[in-house]
Amino acid sequence: MTETRALTMAGIAHLALFATLSLSWSLMADHTITYDEPVPVEFIELGEMPTVTERPEPTLAAAPRETVDAAPAPDTDMLEETPPTEAPDLLVPTETPPPPAKAAPKPEPKKKKPQELTQAVDRNKAEADRALEEQDFASMITDALPPQITLSSIQQSTLVGLIRERIYKCWDPAAGGPDSAAIVTTLRVKAARNGDIIGRPVVVRQSGSANAGYKRAARDAAIRAVMNPSCSLSGLPEKLYAGGWEDFTLNFDPKDL
Amino acid sequence: MMNGLTGATGRAVKPLAALFVLVAALITGPAAAQNLSVDINQGVSRPLPIAIPDFTTQQNVETPAGTTSSLGKRVAEVITNDLKSSGLFRPIDTLAFTTNVAYPDVLSPQFASWRTVAAQALVTGFAEAQSDGSVTIGCYLYDVFSEEVLVREGFNTPVRNWRRAAHKCADAVYSRLTGEAGYFDSRIVYISETGRATNRIKRLAIMDQDGANHRFLTNGQNLVLTPRFAPNQQTVAYLSYAQNRPRIYMYDVNTGQQRLVGNFPNMSFAPRFSPDGRTLAFSQSRGGNTDVYVMDVNGGNVRRLTNAPGIDTAPSFSPDGRRIAFESDRGGSQQIYVMNADGSGQRRISFGDGRYGTPVWSPRGDLIAMTKIGGGKFRIGVMRPDGSGERLLTDSWQDEGPTWSPNGRVIMFFRSRRGGGADLHSIDLTGINERRIPTPLEGSDPAWSPLLQ
């Protein structure tokens, strides 16, 4: 019994020794390798998913968004392929056509009013006289005037503090390089009364001479902060909505960070 | 004036008056319309929550590297590991996911369910075997809140090379979200060590940045030291003590061939390439005086740049090739100096307590990494090229030999243990995210390659 056990142990020990030796042998062996030539990694176009059937799978039936999102697919531009020219100020990526279902036109009419007026005026004063009644003028003037005047300066500064308090917690300025701290991103934000952001914040301007990549990252980080549900505007004072947080700008400035 | 006009009566005047008001409104209007302007100059810095579900496959096909389905899973793992290791991202635990990603979801993610797991970014993709034996890795990045596509790229590569495609996807994601170049598709050359201190076997070895695809390049017969990548990334310069004499060799990673560059009667140390790859800076000791030299990579045109008494060594070029940082004990203790590439304008930049060694200029040019010696420790730190802004990143017994990631965001170094032995570690510039790089044996003297092409 003990003999068998001793034999087994000895056998295992031999095996272990053999294994160790072969391992060290393999390590000692000449591993000078003729390195395979670097295998190329090609970029390929991903306009459409290769051989994927365009038809939605049954599993996706519950996702009505899919038809909307399917629209960008045929666009053959790869994001990275587009040269990062100095157009990062662009508001939304132009690579993909805007989803048709967006509510973008809604806020437009208000903005257009002053323009329409100038057109009318420029075109022909006499014509304008005829076309527009006094009352129209009055209401147009009120419309053209900045609505913010309805908020007192105290109200304004209160609101500024409230909005800042909401947003900063969700702003993580992208890591960035040596000069990314100089990028100030200004977003125009339109909000619904329930706090939802209407459409997507629009980049009004970006200052700083950093490269396009940093600017794009800064833009994304700012938009993420505004769109983050945990930093929603809901619950801001109703009284300060009109002329206040219904439409405002945010300047994301990382220089003091 | 405006009041006067608007106060005037008569139909003819009124429109005119209105016009004036209008013009005034239009002039002040746009500025006033943005009246409520909120400055956000405070933020919260934390790793970005990112979801990286397994890459899918439309048709599960067997390949030499496993099925495309398992390949998709491993690709996601490589990307997860890459992004996590940068310290800038927090990959969300896959167990928390509330949705399965089927093939069509790659293009049309169900953003709502990704928002419920608090993901801010989403990486999806697929692995697809091609008839020619290659594999295509599709790589998509989405902003979960704005539901925007940020990256859409495909990488086609021989199957055995799938990890590189995964690294390229991770680089694309990193680059898009940080605005900087990535660094995941890169390699490390280092000195693999084994054996007792009295009979140490040192071999040149190469591996991917994450430790995968490890290979030995030399057989350990000769002692090798200080490997450095050339900017073209296919060549490594290093020191070899063949026949007990230190010589500078070049190793061609593609062909496996070695070439002797400099055969000097005297000791030479620490060769390092200029950014254009045409010049090597190194140091050499003659008659008890060690100085910094440069020479052409073919071994000709040797020029001496320093001549101060004492030891001048460890030269490192700035990325524009116009300056060289080096260490010198000319002032009585080991310190970091900077000079012009022709040797003019030498001046000391390190003035803190303790000693400083092995300066390495960041590929971004904004920082110099170094080893700080003091308080019984060797620690890795950085300072600006003018010596300001010194910051120590590690705190261990003996960390040395810093080398920069290609984007200048992470530093790799080797850490010696008190009981003997050493291994490779990396740390990001915040000093927070430190990790050990797995190597089959012990490791020292790492050199990070430029980004692969």
TrEMBL record, chain A:
Give positions of region: Disordered: 55-126
Name of this protein: TolA protein
Automatic annotation (TrEMBL), chain B:
Localization annotation: Periplasm
All copies of the TolB N-terminal domain together span 36-148
Signal peptide (UniProt feature, chain positions): 1-33
Give UniProt keywords alphabetically. Answer: Cell cycle, Cell division, Periplasm, Signal
Task performed by this protein: Part of the Tol-Pal system, which plays a role in outer membrane invagination during cell division and is important for maintaining outer membrane integrity.
Family annotation (NCBIfam families): propeller_TolB (TIGR02800)
Oligomeric and partner information: The Tol-Pal system is composed of five core proteins: the inner membrane proteins TolA, TolQ and TolR, the periplasmic protein TolB and the outer membrane protein Pal. They form a network linking the inner and outer membranes and the peptidoglycan layer.
Tell me its family: Belongs to the TolB family.
Q: Which HAMAP family match?
A: TolB
* Protein's name according to its UniProt entry: Tol-Pal system protein TolB
User: Which species is listed as the source?
Assistant: Pacificimonas pallii
